[in-house]
Write a structure and sequence with these properties.
heterodimer; A: 381 residues; mainly beta; Porin; 3 helices; B: 95 residues; Cytochrome Bc1 Complex, Chain D, domain 2; 2 domains
Chain lengths: 381, 95
């Protein structure tokens, strides 16, 4: 999408909605108000044992800096410390300045978690995620990414209640992904790309002037259920090449249901999300193929609400996730996974997780099965 | 390339839908405020905080810390300022 069109569209939407904002006249832009600062975050340690591979421990530490200089301004940032092959790596997970304009809209700018999907934006931190690892296709932590984990750009977001129904929305303009047309030596898969034909989501800079535009609309028909639809469209070809008109489209649907159910005598947590990525076929080598990918997951978690406190701290979880890439993509291995886990919550933000995973890779010569056991201790603060 | 151009129409439609939704929010915003006014902060706290993760007790943070945490949650969970204010009021009272 042309930046001009996208910018005008966002401004038009905000102007249309402006009458609803007129009710909030409270000030709070002055930095002489009480400035507040807080250090939060989480840490975790993983243990992974997979058939045919050497078992290993992994760890991570993610401090989150929250700063509220006034009622209207807010700054949030998360760093990710991890040890990769003996070297401590630091990643800026997000850093965003927010302006809380009024009751229904907040503007943000910087690097922010991708609003098109609930998992990456709200559920992926180790102390929130019910499993020690992430579903396939999201953010590059597991499988081949088909969706950006973060965006670098600007966004407008907010929510509103209409009677008993709530709505949430987000719209953003950002640096877009790029299409991989040749092998990039030394590029890892984490947060990035895989082989030729896949999208590279390392979007701290852009390879063309046509910015990505996306967003999400969610409806909560009642307090326990949230259903969302997210999308993104972006030019992915380098501006100076014959692929300059190639575009990608992400579509995402998600469902979230969390409720204390008396007939089950416990808390049920149901999550589901499917992500589609479609990239144009320019009929030019090496991208002359139908380039469509899909990944998704469904997850159930149950925590008993009866019995002694010790029993109520347990949580039973099950997840099915999958990823399907185009057959022409070099790293193509369609994969699905069934995971069963047992969690023990020491505190609302401290959990010990154990999970057994059955991974099926659909190779050309037949399916290949792997089992792995993953444990994690994580603590939010 | 002509096929590629056709994709623009989908996103013009998408933008139009988003604009229509925001316009609808604008028209119905006043009604929403009255409905929301009936919900106490404790109820809003229970409804919104448990949707993503476990609920922490009000004593987990100081009043000043809750102000920051509630703002963080307001932006992440797309709460209105009225909802956030009521939740904060409840947390401070229960702390």
């Amino acid at each position: 999408m042309k930046p001009f069109v996208a910018t005008i569209s966002i401004l038009a939407m905000l102007l249309i909605a402006q009458p609803a904002f007129a009710q909030d006249s409270r000030s709070g832009t002055s930095f002489t108000d009480q400035s507040k600062f807080m250090l939060a975050g989480f840490g975790f340690v993983n243990a992974v044992d997979q058939k045919g591979e050497i078992s290993s421990f992994q760890m991570g530490f993610n401090p989150i800096l929250l700063w509220q200089p006034s009622r209207k301004f807010f700054f949030e940032s998360e760093l990710e410390f991890a040890i990769e092959e003996g070297v401590t790596e630091v990643t800026l997970e997000y850093a965003q300045l927010l302006f809380l304009a009024n009751r229904y809209v907040t503007f943000g700018g910087g690097k922010f978690l991708n609003p098109t999907n609930v998992f990456m934006e709200r559920l992926h931190p180790a102390w929130i995620n019910k499993f020690p690892d992430m579903p396939f296709g999201l953010g590059g932590h597991s499988g081949v990414p088909i969706l950006a984990s973060t965006q670098v750009g600007v966004q407008a977001r907010g929510g509103i209640s209409m009677g008993s129904i709530r709505f949430g929305y987000a719209a953003y303009m950002s640096n877009g992904p790029s299409i991989v047309v040749e092998e990039e030596a030394g590029e890892g898969h984490a947060h990035g790309s895989a082989g030729v034909g896949t999208a590279n989501f390392n979007n701290t800079s852009d390879n063309n002037g046509d910015k990505a535009f996306g967003g999400r609309v969610a409806v909560l028909p009642w307090r326990t259920l949230e259903i969302g639809y997210g999308f993104e469209t972006a030019a992915v070809g380098d501006a100076s090449t014959e692929f300059k008109d190639v575009r990608s489209r992400n579509n995402v649907v998600d469902l979230n249901y969390v409720d204390d159910l008396s007939f089950l005598r416990g808390r049920l947590d149901v999550r589901g999300q499917v992500v589609w990525l479609d990239i144009d076929n320019p009929d030019v080598h090496p991208l002359e193929f139908d380039n469509s990918s899909v990944a998704g997951y469904g997850q159930l978690a149950f925590r008993p609400g009866i019995g002694k406190a010790f029993v109520q701290n347990f949580e039973f979880v099950a997840r099915y996730d999958f990823q399907d890439l185009p057959s022409q993509v070099e790293e193509n291995v369609d994969v699905e996974r069934i995971s069963l886990g047992l969690n023990y919550w020491f505190s609302p933000a401290g959990v010990l997780k154990m999970a057994v995973e059955n991974i099926t890779r659909k190779e050309m010569l037949g399916d290949e099965n792997d089992y792995r056991v993953v444990g994690q201790f994580s603590l939010g603060f | 390339m002509a096929i590629i151009r056709k994709s623009y129409f989908k996103y013009v439609a998408g933008i139009t839908c988003l604009g229509a939704l925001l316009a609808m929010f604008a028209l119905l915003g006043c009604t929403a405020s009255r409905q929301l006014a009936a919900k106490p902060g404790a109820q809003l706290w229970g409804e919104n905080w448990g949707r993503c993760h476990n609920i922490r007790t009000p004593s987990s943070y100081s009043d000043a810390q809750w102000e920051i945490v509630v703002t963080h949650m307001r932006t992440r969970a797309n709460l209105t300022s009225d909802e956030a204010d009521k939740i904060l009021e409840f947390l401070k009272a229960a702390n």
